[in-house]
Amino acid sequence: METQQGICPHDRMAALRIDKKKILFSPDNGALVLTGIYHKKEHPRHLVAVLHRTDMDHKPYDLIFEGKAKDKNIIGTYGTPDCRATITFYRPHHYGLSNAIAH
Question: Which domain of life is it from (predicted)?
Answer without folding.
Answer: Bacteria
